[in-house]
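User: Show me a protein chain along with its predicted structure.
Assistant: Here is one chain, sequence first, then structure tokens.
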Amino acid sequence: MTGSASTPSADISRAIVTVIGSRGNVCTGSLIAPHIVLTAGHCITPNTSYRIIDNTTQPPRLITVSKVATHPQFNMQTMLAHRATADVALLLLPASVPKKEAAQLGVPRAPIAPGSRFTVAGIGVTAAGSDAGIGTVRKAALAVTGHPGTLQIRLVDPVTDNKRAGMGACTGDSGAPVFEDQDGRTMIVGVVSWSTGPGNADGCGGLTGVTPLTLYKDWIVKTARSWGAAPLD
């Protein structure tokens, strides 16, 4: 997470996990049930095994993922073009992670209006092209910009407004949960799909692209229940 040194509240931090793939990719995930992790669809690739880092132990423990499921409508090329797609996936763990707690699952309040605030929390790097800060949970309070809808939301640091580098998702924050406060409850309502540098250039600190769960929550709940768990909502 670039431009931010803020640590999320305990209820957010306890839900965040690091997802690593056998091909070297690193993403952020969030527990939505004691042994089910929500992440981005583009974090999951064929013929790859995945593990979760449990940093509540010393040294950290690696937990092998039992099963993965990517939304059947996800399209990688569409996501790489920063267009809307079903960029969500689930990971099944063999057991719950000690000292971690699932967060509540929801959908964004409708209609989503420009200027609405969301909180993004991830384990990504603090500077594009670097590995600095990877693995440490940070948050960013961002605002909706452009023309939001049920397919995609674009977030921006309200202070820098995509004109210069500000807070936003970066490498490793893919799949990071996007939170909205709803009637005193902190709900996961989306996942991070992509980011840009200022002025929509390559990099980080400009826009943060989010896939809202509005159209995909039913699939998430159905899949989780087929694995023997019910997400918190």
